């Protein structure tokens, strides 16, 4: 199956980046969300990204940027959004029941050949797609934020994902400029599961007063060669809440209490200190830092 049109389901931080990437890679794109303000927010984010990182840097003319944005059709009508698409990539909030209901609805309204992919960073793909009648066409496509710098794509196969579905998505990943790796269906896959453990241990050391957040991050960047330390990473991706929910999910699914988020992480999440988006996480930021 040749992929010509892609639906990005969800216009938030990941959804609009996926839509932009697909359009830049030459695909026709629909981007859908439940309210027009979310759709417009996603389109505005794409417009700002194109202006800031392409037009202003001389990598694209204003006309080219406008034409690219014009390839992305924003809508709140899911049935219209999936019309004629070969692949749907879901990036809605990390709520398993919501994702299950969404996949069930997609199964009803999408063409029989349409592949249903999820950008979840947490849940088993088989759990998300178990209510569909096309489990052979359900697969995981886990992108990493920010897409402009993070080329990795985890492709997650379930026991029922067909070889044809896998090959179509693997080919699509390469055409999107990603470096694909193949993962057996499991909670949090590879990268997030490893990072979560690093983050939890870093938070434990912070709680125990072993070192400051700055020095723990420096140990990871200058000593281990990481691009960012765990605290800076969580803040940049506004992932305090994700860390808490992921910790609970992993602890319950894998029967290992060590995966639970540390108290300092839970306290910051409860206080609304989510990272750059709130100007405070493990670090404090100027109000404009996430704009």
Based on the model shown, name its key terms:
single chain; 291 residues; alpha/beta; Rossmann fold; N-(1-d-carboxylethyl)-l-norvaline Dehydrogenase, domain 2; 2 domains; 8-stranded mixed β-sheet; 12 helices
Total number of β-strand segments?
8
How much is the radius of gyration in Å?
19 Å
- H/E element order: EHEHHEHEHEHEEHEHHHHH
CATH fold type of the largest domain: Rossmann fold
- In round numbers, the mean pLDDT is 96
How many alpha or pi helices? 12
Inertia-based shape: globular
- Under the CATH scheme, the architecture of the largest domain is 3-Layer(aba) Sandwich
For CATH, the homologous superfamily of the largest domain is named as NAD(P)-binding Rossmann-like Domain
Total domain units: 2
Task: List unreliable stretches of 5+ residues.
Answer: none
Specify the biggest β-sheet.
Answer: 8 strands, mixed
Strand neighbour order, sheet with most strands? 3-2-1-4-5-6-7-8
Q: Structural class per helix/strand content?
A: alpha/beta
CATH level-1 class of the largest domain: Alpha Beta
Strand content: 5-15%
Helical coverage, percent range? 40-55%
Distance between the termini: 39 Å
Description:
It contains twelve helices and eight strands. Helix 1 (13-24) packs across helix 2 (36-55), helix 2 (36-55) runs antiparallel to helix 3 (62-70) and helix 11 packs across helix 12. The mean pLDDT is 96. The protein has 291 residues and is of the alpha/beta class. It has two domains: 5-184, 3-Layer(aba) Sandwich (Rossmann fold), CATH 3.40.50; 192-278, N-(1-d-carboxylethyl)-l-norvaline Dehydrogenase, domain 2 (Orthogonal Bundle), CATH 1.10.1040.10. The N and C termini lie far apart (39 Å).
